[in-house]
């Protein structure tokens, strides 16, 4: 096989057994790689009703055929498992250099099974695979773990690991790789922690090959990355979205009660440049360089690392009503070091702030005051969450379980118990479908309609109407599922859309993928993910949004007065998808996609 | 003055496209191991050094080669290793202060950058213009020597890149 290495490493943590399996060529063609192959394996190999933190859950870490090829933005790998946060499929994407290294070692992916009897780390040195004792590493943050593992293996090894949050089963725990890159959402770090696996170090010197002719296609497509959007990613990173979203009134503020944040100019892309930016950084093969290497000097918030991204700015900034970029960056560093998803942690703290405002959470519960806008409290609680210290032990369960404990689950800004992202669906209606039908719960990275509705990329559509949004959501979801399966970063498609990557996919694999095959693969992946969730007990009732978004009109700004008619949108969407009225894929649909 | 691959570390974003370009061109596979350009990152200090062999004026690797396999082209300045003569003893690798001579097979045979004989593939793939193929000014040459020194200092304890 070309593009793919054709091999998957299966590691049984319980009995210390490693085997190398052939990647099924049919599966590879139908599901491409990464998210696609991982989801298919999850559906085939685990009982969807399994307890996510039990040894019976498995973890699939998959690269795509374009990962590590020097294809524009071809750095990605995907972690797929069952989520302890949502109970649905968990699926988290990361860049950096770890995925390409895994392929250079000769593997498209790793399957982790069972649970180690005590803390271990996995050392993949080409064909030599070892499960080693990680007793000394347990308790260390992700940066120290990375340093130590490199010292114990090879200074050139790439390391993916969990921090204390993953060890302590924080439901929002991430897997961090190459220090500050993260497979963050849906609690994949907790699953790794539940398996007693602290880190996976990889050194790959064998390399892998692609089909002839790939190089010229790559040169041609690399040259397409020009223009304002590409430049914006390099100049501002994702934080360029702050001003856009704030201007149209969908920048979630005050735990999603407002859509305009007066403090936005203090936490936008320019603020990052002016106050904390050291330089920009790229993942492997990237032609955009959106990562922000930053340093904070303000006393109390000192630190250095990467971020914040747009979503993190919302989570620790606007929705907590904090306009101090130093504090936002500090909370981001803590998330990276303790190994947590910054979106979920920030939104959970905002929920706690509202419960505090209502007098439901008391100062003595938290051990400090917890008013909106209190940057110090926010940063301190981020740390406590990662370590499950004091009130952090409760925050570690995420926003939904926190609000539920105080009898007000509706104050949690979640869908399927996952914290939703920074595009308010009231002013960007398609996002209602993006969040509510996303297989991994409330999240924007599975076909965000806001790119069209707010940024006009690749086409401008009206943001406050629901007409056409089911079609738009479905189209973007399928495309996104496909790009997530290739090993390429979705940001690349924001700049040049998808056709160039269909070409690159064909060039790398030597197979003739058409745009049709690509979209069909995306649709197949989406339905496989849905099917897993259906078998886990999810249906229409779970495709929900916070009542605030459905019933409380925005009080101010350009999206003032707006709510969302989700039920009508779901009716249209299910019909288009070929699912029944309860959101279950029909036999006919599954058969047509070759899933059954 | 002959053209060189001019290194601009401040422009580098550590994307490694130079590395994939090199290993793909010469070995038809992707791995930084086979790349003759290595972008060396010092993460703690947020420093990235995209560098190949500097093709030194007085290459320290040259005199230590017991088989006289290493030569410097007086016209282009390119330092080459004769594959036939190389015995894989590793003396040149040890001598290079910036560790930019690499073992590539089980016999320890050495490879290094030869500027692709005047058409460097890595430069074509660099999007940040952190490496450029051009003549450099005397000031830039001084900078280049400083960079060599600096990188050599940082890599003193490192055995292999």
Automatic annotation (TrEMBL), chain A:
Keywords: 4Fe-4S, Iron, Iron-sulfur, Metal-binding, Oxidoreductase. InterPro entries: Ald_Fedxn_OxRdtase_dom2, Ald_Fedxn_OxRdtase_dom3, Ald_Fedxn_OxRdtase_N, Ald_Fedxn_OxRdtase_N_sf, OxRdtase_Ald_Fedxn_C, Tungsten_al_ferr_oxy-like_C, W-dependent_AOR. GO terms for molecular function: 4 iron, 4 sulfur cluster binding; electron transfer activity; metal ion binding; oxidoreductase activity, acting on the aldehyde or oxo group of donors, iron-sulfur protein as acceptor. It holds the Pfam family AFOR_C. Residues 4-206 form the Aldehyde ferredoxin oxidoreductase N-terminal domain. Its cofactor is [4Fe-4S] cluster; tungstopterin. It comes from the Bacteria. Belongs to the AOR/FOR family. This is Aldehyde ferredoxin oxidoreductase.
From TrEMBL, chain B:
GO terms for molecular function: 4 iron, 4 sulfur cluster binding; metal ion binding. The keyword Iron applies. SUPFAM superfamilies: 4Fe-4S ferredoxins (SSF54862). InterPro entries: 4Fe4S_Fe-S-bd, 4Fe4S_Fe_S_CS, ET_IronSulfur_Cluster-Binding. Keywords: 4Fe-4S, Iron, Iron-sulfur, Metal-binding. Residues 3-32, 44-75, 77-106 form the 4Fe-4S ferredoxin-type domain. PROSITE patterns: 4FE4S_FER_1, 4FE4S_FER_2. The keyword Iron applies. This is 4Fe-4S ferredoxin-type domain-containing protein. It comes from Candidatus Schekmanbacteria bacterium GWA2_38_11.
């Amino acid at each position: 096989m070309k593009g793919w290495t054709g091999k998957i490493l299966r590691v049984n943590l319980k009995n210390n057994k490693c085997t190398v399996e052939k990647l099924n060529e049919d599966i590879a063609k139908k599901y491409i790689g990464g998210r696609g192959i991982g989801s298919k394996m999850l559906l085939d190999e685990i009982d969807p009703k399994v307890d996510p933190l039990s040894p019976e859950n498995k973890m699939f870490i998959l690269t795509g055929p374009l990962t590590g090829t020097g294809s524009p933005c071809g750095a990605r790998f995907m972690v797929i498992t069952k989520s302890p946060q949502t109970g649905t499929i968990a699926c988290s994407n990361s860049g950096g250099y770890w995925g390409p290294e895994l392929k250079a070692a000769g593997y498209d992916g790793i399957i982790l099974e069972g649970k180690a009897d005590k803390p271990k780390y996995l050392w993949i040195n080409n064909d030599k695979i070892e499960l080693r004792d990680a007793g000394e590493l347990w308790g260390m943050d992700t940066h120290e773990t990375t340093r130590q593992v490199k010292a114990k293996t090879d200074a050139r090894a790439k390391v993916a690991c969990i921090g204390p949050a993953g060890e302590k089963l924080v439901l929002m725990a991430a897997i961090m790789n190459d220090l500050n890159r993260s497979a963050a959402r849906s609690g994949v770090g907790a699953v790794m922690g539940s398996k007693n696996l602290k880190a996976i170090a990889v050194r790959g010197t064998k390399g892998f090959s692609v089909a002839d002719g790939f190089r010229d296609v790559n040169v041609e497509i690399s040259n397409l990355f020009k223009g304002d959007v590409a430049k914006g990613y390099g100049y501002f990173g994702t934080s360029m979205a702050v001003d856009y979203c704030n201007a149209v009134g969908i920048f979630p503020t005050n735990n999603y009660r407002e859509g305009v944040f007066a403090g936005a100019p203090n936490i936008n892309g320019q603020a990052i440049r002016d106050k904390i930016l050291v330089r920009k950084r790229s993942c492997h093969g990237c032609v955009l360089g959106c990562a922000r290497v930053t340093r904070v000097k303000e006393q109390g918030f000192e630190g250095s690392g990467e971020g914040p991204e747009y979503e993190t700015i919302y989570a620790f900034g606007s929705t907590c009503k904090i306009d101090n970029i130093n504090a936002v960056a500090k909370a981001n560093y803590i998330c990276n070091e303790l190994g947590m998803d910054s979106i979920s942690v920030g939104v959970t703290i905002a929920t706690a702030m509202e419960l505090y405002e209502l007098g439901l959470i008391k100062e003595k519960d938290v051990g400090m005051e917890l008013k909106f806008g209190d940057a110090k409290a926010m940063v301190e609680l981020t740390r406590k969450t990662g370590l499950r210290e004091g009130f952090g032990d409760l925050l570690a369960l995420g926003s939904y379980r926190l609000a539920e404990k105080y009898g007000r689950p509706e104050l949690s800004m979640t869908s399927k118990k996952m914290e939703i992202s920074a595009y308010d669906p009231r002013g960007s209606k398609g996002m209602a479908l993006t969040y509510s039908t996303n297989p991994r719960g409330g999240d924007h990275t599975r076909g965000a309609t806001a790119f069209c509705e707010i940024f006009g990329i690749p086409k401008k559509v009206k943001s406050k109407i629901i007409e056409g949004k089911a079609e738009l959501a479905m189209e973007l979801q399928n495309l996104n599922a496909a790009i997530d399966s290739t090993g390429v970063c979705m940001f690349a498609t924001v700049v040049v859309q998808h056709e160039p990557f269909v070409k690159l996919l064909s060039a790398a694999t030597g197979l003739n993928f058409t745009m049709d095959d690509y979209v069909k693969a995306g649709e197949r992946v989406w339905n496989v993910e849905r099917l897993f969730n259906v078998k886990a007990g999810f249906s229409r009732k779970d495709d929900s949004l916070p009542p605030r978004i459905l019933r409380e009109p925005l009080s101010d700004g350009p999206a003032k007065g707006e709510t969302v008619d989700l039920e009508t949108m779901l009716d249209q969407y299910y019909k288009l998808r070929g699912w029944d009225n309860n959101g279950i894929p029909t036999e006919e649909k599954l058969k047509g996609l070759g899933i059954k | 003055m002959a053209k060189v691959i001019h290194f601009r570390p401040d422009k580098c974003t550590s994307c490694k496209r130079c590395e994939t370009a090199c290993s793909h061109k010469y070995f038809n596979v992707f791995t930084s191991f086979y790349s003759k350009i290595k972008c060396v990152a010092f993460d703690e200090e947020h420093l990235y050094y995209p560098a190949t062999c500097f093709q030194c004026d007085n290459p320290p690797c040259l005199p230590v080669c017991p088989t006289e396999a290493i030569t410097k082209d007086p016209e282009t300045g390119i330092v080459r290793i004769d594959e036939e003569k190389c015995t894989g003893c590793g003396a040149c690798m040890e001598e290079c202060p910036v560790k930019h001579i690499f073992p590539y097979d089980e016999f320890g045979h050495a490879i290094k950058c030869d500027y692709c004989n005047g058409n460097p593939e890595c430069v074509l793939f660099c999007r940040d213009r952190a490496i450029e193929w051009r003549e450099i000014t005397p000031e830039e040459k001084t900078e280049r020597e400083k960079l060599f020194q600096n990188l050599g200092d940082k890599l003193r304890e490192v055995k292999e890149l």
